[in-house]
Specification:
The structure is a homodimer. Chain A is an alpha+beta fold. Chain A contains 7 helices and 16 strands.
Chain lengths: ~280, ~280
């Protein structure tokens, strides 16, 4: 085992390390949660919204959330010296237990790591993306709906499928055939100036930017089941994610769109929102 | 981070270690598979059946299966000096990649660890278990049906639920309300000397012992959707797992059974089967 440690870029339970124990339940069962976010000049973007989602995930899984100050300190340490990077916080139930049954007195494992800013992330908003519906259909699991947990095999399988279509973004439907989201972002369609987006109560992730959109544009957004046929009636389509911002969708399968004024309005909102946090 | 290494009991990629990298996709996404099995006097029980299931899982996820000889060597090294133990093989897609998309040239990570024989495992067969239906319902995901992957949050949630009912085994239904399995084992019901067991094509795990039963008792087993009401018509009910063997079920919710002659026959079959491999 070669210990290729890069100074301070990863902390495990607050100490510089790149290694987790093989009996950590994150590794054995995917028993945990994660958050990925931008850190610019030491300031994590949309921090409180990420913490709120992490807390909801902890409540759902019955994991004790570490104090936010601890996670913030780890984040700043991991990102130190980088003008802009992505930080991932992984929080697992901890080490051990007999099989699926969690141990009585486990302590959550927290891993906080900094990663280079992904190439090409900034240009997505300008030109938009073309997309394609994945064959993989998301399973319905209300007990895990909306939270950002570590059981991500569906997304991995969909991403593998999309490797045959380089440059295209994947669109995910659920087992009932309704549109749920993009592979890396939530999805909104614009119909007559109203923003429609699916509920995330039975599958999918409640995205941070989606949550902020629902709050800031309460009167213009409707939560709706989206049948793929509704794409034909959409004036505009966009994806949103805390990392990527508002990304116009210019095509899904046979449907095509120009980048519209509501999408551009949302991009301006995002820039202002980003600067304000 | 304290390095509490116990000599040779865990191998990571063939080397003595208890640690996996924090970017291992097993940890970040549950992107991998596992097998747990008994090793007695250095002989892994039902080895080929476990290897066959692992291979099917690798094919499903697109992970390259390491040579069996390597896994066998690791297993023997990890279990060395123990008269009886449980060995777990965890196989992940490997380290890294940008988000969900797997890296082009990753190499699978293999973790092979030995664990003490669980207390109480041997007496289950004698007295049987009482069981209770879990509230958690398994999601339907044909793309992952039957394989033993690392996305086990549903089982963890069901196990947490069962902590309120100590001593009872959990019975899992799927989202449609059909009986799928026990929390730690597959399930068979006996009706008029015929063995009925559910298909594992949309959820659940294709158990090793289940597979051997299907092969050895081909003419007496039927794959069947099991509505919970069918429990009322069952003469006998048993659970089966490669580790636990054939475990009589004496109660599920309001239904009760005596330990019957077919169950006892299967227990004799298991003892003979075990000795023969």
């Amino acid at each position: 085992m070669s210990e290729k440690r890069t100074d301070r870029e990863c902390l495990v339970n607050g100490e510089v390390s790149e290694w987790v124990h093989h009996t950590d339940r994150g590794f054995t069962y995917g028993d945990g949660l994660f958050e990925s976010f931008a850190v610019e000049q030491g300031r994590p973007r949309f921090w409180q919204a990420h913490m709120d989602r992490l807390k909801r995930g902890c409540d759902t899984l019955g994991i004790e959330m570490p104090p936010q100050e601890l996670l913030l300190r780890d984040t700043r340490t991991a990102a130190a010296g980088q003008s802009r990077c992505v930080v991932r916080i992984t929080l697992t139930r901890g080490v051990g237990g007999r099989g699926y049954t969690p141990p009585e007195d486990t302590k959550a494992t927290r891993v906080v790591s900094a990663h280079p800013w992904p190439e090409g992330l900034d240009t997505l908003g300008r030109n938009g993306v073309r997309a394609r519906t994945c064959e993989l259909r998301l399973a319905l699991q209300p007990a895990l709906g909306g939270i950002k947990h570590l059981n991500r095999l569906e997304q991995v399988l969909a991403a593998r499928e999309m490797q045959a279509h380089p440059g295209l973004e994947g669109i995910l439907l659920n087992q009932e055939g309704f549109v749920i989201s993009g592979l890396h972002a939530n999805l909104f369609i614009v119909v007559d100036n109203t923003l429609l987006t699916p509920r995330m109560d039975r599958c999918g992730v409640r995205g941070i930017l989606r949550g902020l959109l629902l709050r800031d544009f309460k009167s213009r957004v409707e939560l709706r089941r989206l049948h793929p046929a509704m794409l034909g009636e959409a004036d505009e389509v966009f994806l949103c994610s805390a990392l990527r911002g508002i990304v116009p969708v210019t095509a899904i399968d046979e449907h095509e769109w120009r980048i519209g004024k509501v999408t551009r309005e949302m991009q301006e909102w995002f820039e202002a929102r980003k600067a304000a946090t």
